[in-house]
Amino acid sequence: MKLLNKSAFYYLPLSLLVMVVGGALLYLTIKKVIYKQIDNSLITEKTIIEDQIKQSDTIPDFEAALGHQIEVKLMNYHLRSYQAIKDTDIYDPKTDSFMPFRYLFYSGNTNEKKGFVITIFRTISEKNELLQDIGLYLFFLFFSLLLISILINYLIARNLWRPFYDSVKIAGRFDIQSDTPLNLPGTDINEFNQLNEIFDNMTRKMRDDYLNLKEFSENASHEIQTPLAVIRSKTDLLMQQKNLKKDSINLVKSINEATTRLFKLNQGLLLISKISNQVFHEKKIVSLKRIVENGLENYKEIMELKNIRISIDGKDEALVEMNEVLAEVLISNLLSNAVRFNINGGFIKCHIDNMFLTLTNTGLSMTNNPEDLFRRFHKNSENPQSVGLGLSIVRKITESYGMLITYTCRDNIHELKLRYR
Amino acid sequence: MKLLIVEDDRSLSRSIYDYLKMEGHICEVALTFTDATQKVAINKYDCIILDIGLPDGNGLDLIREMKANRLTGGILILSAKSSLDDKLVGLNIGADDYLTKPFHFAELNARINSIYRRNNFLGLNEITFNEIRINTEDNQVYVNEKLLILTKKEYDLLLFFMANRNRIITKESIVEHLWGDNVILTDSFDFVYTHVKNLRKKIVAAEGSNYIKCIYGFGYKFIDI
Q1: CB atoms B80 and A253 under 8 Å
Q2: Does residue B63 sit in helix, strand or coil?
Q3: Which residues numbered 246-275 in A keep a CB inside 8 Å of some CB on B?
Q4: A301·B151 Cβ contact <8 A
Q5: Is A256–B198 a contact, with Cβ atoms under 8 angstroms apart?
Q6: What is the domain extent for residue B106?
């Protein structure tokens, strides 16, 4: 749940509760005040009538107003002094319904022997209507108050949290490989500034570490080259010596092979790190078809020897904007695989359309998981000589240009599909 | 040939010195930029093997200095960096070739020879070895004065053998020479075996001698019988 919704989620029932209770209390209070007023006026009237009765000993003449009835009865005996104010409903033949009334009942005595009873009725239907209206208004008032306060709360919260969302957005785009550090904008809220500062420091540290590591592996790869050159040159010299014993030859041979492997490994890793560092930034429009044709030329004799048939079809030139060297590395890696793992009398087919460059070739069956092929240092058990970097270089190149490469194998037919556009 | 080796790593410069001396060249070694500048100013070299990353200066500056003073002599850059930029800059300011560490001596030798051939127009665009004659101008090979039809790779291979006569050439160095650095996966030596076999067959078929000898464990040797 979003933070803004969450606060509304808590805010709504709480404020609703407060408003319902508050509204009810207010309603009851108003009702009480109104009844008190009615009761007071009833008592005042009663007092006036009582005074008149006591003075004149007769029933005063009242003109009963609408909904305002006064009944006075004189008794010839003594009554207990009693007063009560109550609600009642009285049938009104005009509207054929019961109307709410408030009435005061009072019994008293003028002297020892004579008592009287006063009953004053007063209609309260108007008052009730008033109360209803007040209740309705209260409801609307509170309801709109609630809506407005939620809206205001939402708007304020959104405004308050904006720097936070901005920071999240910027931090989300953070790429450790990019040249720019994460620069979160300053705000006027201390907490957010603190958070941004922590984020900034954290990512700066991460970037520094990453750059250090990158620089280290690059430097290490470079620095390894010279000692490797020394080893290679010494073995070269050793090889040229005459009268080497067979044992020594085997030793030198092993050293030489290991050196070559180390060199290939280092070269491959250097290439991968260079692709990541975008050393090959010069781009131009290259035709993949032409590179495939040139690449196949490189293996012409070997393919003739292995009786491998080649076919290139598709009119599309497969023009892409990329670095020429990388394009050549990409294609030559794919082709050398297609040649190397091919069988005698097999074929290599290259099909180019406006989206895909598909390389199909015959070969031996593959038991490995296709995805593993693109992993660094993945080794084919049948070919321990391979350093296992070729296809991970291919993937690195395709990734850096937003291309997609997939591998499938069916009935010993291997297919590499490159989506170059 | 008179050569200058500019390389700050003592062990490596010593190896290069030994090997090139074995090839019959006159060699001098400069371990620092200053040393190299002085040597270049005094002597005339046919080819300078130059490391770019020197402790007291950049090898590229030496090339600039030489070109500014109109000093002749081929220049072969030797660098731990195979970075394309360095290569382009080097070649643009007047270096003849570029070799990345670690290299094979056979390759170094072939490159020096090819630089030397290119820089000297004294009818040296022909390499003759007994009954084999190679014209490097139009890339033609003659055995007993008969034209031998070779594929591009076979021709390159023959030239490579010629440059490294009587030396053991490893299969690795042949792979790198024929297919270049970029083809990382071509480490299967069947390719080399096939090419060597075909080349030998063609020369023998043209009544040439079988000069290419297989050396157990290492590779091949082109020897005068």
Answers
A1: no
A2: helix
A3: 246, 249-250, 252-253, 256, 259-260, 263-264, 267-268, 270-271, 274
A4: yes
A5: no
A6: 2-119
Helix (H, G, I), strand (E, B), or coil: what is residue B144? coil
A386 in contact with B, Cβ within 8 Å:
yes
Q: Mean pLDDT for chain A?
A: 84
Same domain, A120 and A247: no
Domain that holds residue A262: 190-276
Pair (B8, B114) in one structural domain = yes
Q: Do B191 and A302 touch (CB under 8 A)?
A: yes
Dihedral angle of Cα A98, A99, A101, A105, to the nearest 10 degrees: -30
Check which CATH number belongs to the domain holding A289 and give it.
3.30.565.10
> Are residues A415 and A315 located together in one domain of the fold?
yes
Domain identity same for B108 and B10? yes
A67 pLDDT more than 70: no
Each residue's pLDDT tens digit, B184-220 = 444 457 778 888 998 999 999 988 889 999 988 788 9
Distance CA B142, CA A141 (A): 110
Strand pairing class (B53-54; B219-222): unpaired
State the total domains in chain B: 2
Chain B, 109 to 148: residues with Cβ < 8 Å from chain A are none
The reply to whether A166 falls in a domain is no
Instruction: Single out the residue of A393, A390, A155, A156 nearest to residue A272, CA to CA.
Output: A393
B11 and B115 assigned to the same domain: yes
- From chain B, the residues in CB contact with A228 under 8 A are 101-102
Structure tokens, A401: 């240009």
A221-255 pLDDT, tens digit each: 778 888 888 998 898 888 888 888 888 888 888 88
For residue A231, list chain B residues with Cβ-Cβ distance below 8 A.
102
Query: How far is it, in rounded angstroms, from Cα A251 to Cα A254?
Result: 5
The answer for A 168-207 residues in CB contact with B (under 8 A) is: none
A264 and A345 share one domain: no
Per residue in B48-58, pLDDT (tens digit) is 999 888 888 88
Q: Is A376 on the interface with B (CB under 8 A)?
A: no
- Judged by CB atoms closer than 8 Å, whether chains meet at B183 and A230 is answered as no
CATH code: domain of residue B19: 3.40.50.2300
- Whether residue A307 lies within 8 A of chain B, CB to CB, comes out as no
Could you tell me what percent of chain A has a pLDDT over 90?
Answer: 6
pLDDT (tens digit, 9 = 90+) per residue, A93-124?
A: 888 888 888 888 988 887 777 888 888 888 88
Same domain membership, residue A128 and residue A40? yes
Instruction: Name the residue in chain A with its Cα closest to that of B100.
Output: A225
Count of CB contacts below 8 A, A vs B? 123
Count Cβ neighbours within 10 Å for each residue of A34-69 and write b for 16 or more, e otherwise. bbeebeeebeebbeebbebbeeeeebeebeeeeeeb
Number of domains composing chain A: 3
What pLDDT does residue B185 have?
A: 47
3-state secondary structure of B99: strand
So what's the pLDDT on residue B187? 47
Q: Where are the alpha helices (DSSP H) in A92-242?
A: 125-172, 190-240
CATH number of the structural domain spanning residue B174: 1.10.10.10
Q: State whether A301 and A395 are in the same domain.
A: yes
Statement to judge: residues B136 and B205 lie in one domain? yes
Task: Mark whether B138 and B213 lie in a shared domain.
Answer: yes
Chain A CB within 8 Å of residue B221 CB: no
Instruction: Please judge whether B186 and A230 are an interchain contact, meaning their C-beta atoms are less than 8 angstroms apart.
Output: no
Residues B101 and B163 in one domain: no
**ipTM (interface pTM):** 0.81
